[in-house]
């Protein structure tokens, strides 16, 4: 089957897609976008988190055919050219990265959290809200402390800029 | 295996009628897990459906609204929307929805998927049982409504016929306080070790219960309901705190209604005990809600 959709603002097309193939597979193996990581393939780890029509989803659990005509935003689409997204800068500055495998999913999920809170004129999310938002993103290296620090930093900066 | 994209609900029903071996697909949080595993060395032997019928592009299952005093909840409304839009109207179901998976999973997963998968651990089942909800099943030329209490037949087996699609669930007019509780190893991303839902219906003098993940199918605690109905008959009006003995007995009877097994998530003995604790606690919470007049009929 042929699947056409939009990724990071650009129309894309994939041919000979198997009916049971995941959006994650198409992104990584057919479209050359390996930022979204493939780990558990069952929605447990969050490392394949992408936006699908503005909502975060596990790309491994979306059938590629379900993306037809829709809009996808991956971790590759967060930065504006060479300029990192504030969430990405905060992860760098807070040292929230060790092996880096979970990082793309955490970036997209954090981006969504801040978009819905400080980005919508609301308060910065409290730690409970951050933990709840990131509950589906597993990190096996950091112990999460630096990740939480990065989210707080990004929220602070976003709040300050508003 | 084919990927079918029906243009509308009628075409989806036609596809279902013509291809009984096809698998309806909505949020994918169960179906895609199986498909992903089918290709891997860890996967079960590939037993692929002849087709996937993708319902995610259709508007019909994704709406909710009043239906003659009832709430009609489309089978494809994701849990995120149930939490955001229906917490007041369907508190137990919304509370259960809040405990499901992660935000990413709740953005995709649906009550229709929970019903179609029919895992005894599905979190939507106890609230549907406790509130006497109905499941709307549609086939070409027929729509029927099956009470949730008759829907579950065996693990992963339900009233759903091969030519039917789960269209919606119907929730009766909210009758009183509802509560849901679940035991798991974390607050998130956890399959229930067991769960319990309760609804108090002061105007009718009734109570409803639902037990999850502690039996081959989601169960009602009939004896516990009968006991509580009798105990509450003279207590609705005074709204005094419930005697501890009533709470305790209700918990014991709920535990007795469970039919759990030992598995990786917990032993049968633990589950039975925990169902009793959840029943006792949710009764206390619901009764306190009622005493404070937090119920819509109060």
From TrEMBL, chain A:
It comes from the Bacteria. Keywords: 2Fe-2S, Iron, Iron-sulfur, Metal-binding, Oxidoreductase. InterPro entries: 2Fe-2S-bd (IPR002888), 2Fe-2S-bd_dom_sf (IPR036884), 2Fe-2S_ferredoxin-like_sf (IPR036010), 2Fe-2S_ferredoxin-type (IPR001041), 2Fe2S_fd_BS (IPR006058), Beta-grasp_dom_sf (IPR012675), Diverse_Oxidoreductases (IPR051452). Residues 1-78 form the 2Fe-2S ferredoxin-type domain. PROSITE patterns: 2FE2S_FER_1, 2FE2S_FER_2. It holds the Pfam family Fer2_2. GO terms for molecular function: 2 iron, 2 sulfur cluster binding; metal ion binding; oxidoreductase activity. PANTHER family: OXIDOREDUCTASE WITH IRON-SULFUR SUBUNIT, XANTHINE DEHYDROGENASE IRON-SULFUR-BINDING SUBUNIT XDHC-RELATED. This is Carbon-monoxide dehydrogenase small subunit.
Automatic annotation (TrEMBL), chain B:
It comes from the Bacteria. The keyword Oxidoreductase applies. GO terms for molecular function: FAD binding; oxidoreductase activity. Residues 1-176 form the FAD-binding PCMH-type domain. SUPFAM superfamilies: CO dehydrogenase flavoprotein C-terminal domain-like (SSF55447), FAD-binding/transporter-associated domain-like (SSF56176). Keywords: FAD, Flavoprotein, Oxidoreductase. This is CO/xanthine dehydrogenase FAD-binding subunit.
